[in-house]
Amino acid sequence: MDKKSFAKIYKTLGGENMTHKEALHNINEFLEILEKILVNDGQVKLVKKAVFEVIERQPRRISNPQTREIMEIYPKKTVRFRASKNISFD
After folding, report:
1. How far is CA 26 from CA 37, 61, 74, 77, in A?
2. Distance between CA 84 and CA 90 in Å, rounded?
3. What is the DSSP string of 59-82?
4. Residue 9 and residue 19: Cα distance in Å, rounded?
């Protein structure tokens, strides 16, 4: 799902009259705040909903399929999203 589709759903679920531009603005603000918190703390818990956490991937060696050259992929940090078992999709 892209951001435009997400904004359309957010706009329809919001009880107030909201324009598409306002919905995109709210989504962008949330994502910026989430990014700042993840950089500082490394984890965001939304109680009974989900967890966003920063994990560090280990370095690994791979083989280039065309040249068979062994290359090393360096460690990097990624964000993991885990939905709660109690979340309902009604």
Report:
1. 17, 41, 35, 26
2. 15
3. PEEEE-TTT--EEEEPPEEEEEEE
4. 12
- Concatenate the DSSP letters of all residues of the chain into one string: --HHHHHHHHHHHSSS---HHHHHHHHHHHHHHHHHHHHHTSEEEETTTEEEEEEEEPPEEEE-TTT--EEEEPPEEEEEEEE-TT----
d(CA 62, CA 70): 6
pLDDT tens for each residue of 17-74? 888 899 999 999 999 999 999 999 999 998 888 999 999 999 999 999 999 999 999 9
Tokens of 53: 């956490």
